[in-house]
């Protein structure tokens, strides 16, 4: 099982968030559990190679 980091916050009645690897793709849920499920769904879509032009975040080692 792969672990993914995500950023989230509560705004009134909704929980909002995005995956750190894909910050351009936000989602929401009425509970934190629903938000996490929606983030799993987004991850599946973004990594399925069916969507064009998916932007990602990477890490670069520099000297």
TrEMBL record:
Family matches, as SUPFAM superfamilies: TTHA1013/TTHA0281-like
InterPro entries: TTHA1013/TTHA0281-like (IPR035069)
Superkingdom of source: Bacteria
Name of the featured protein: Type II toxin-antitoxin system HicB family antitoxin
Provenance organism: Thiohalocapsa halophila
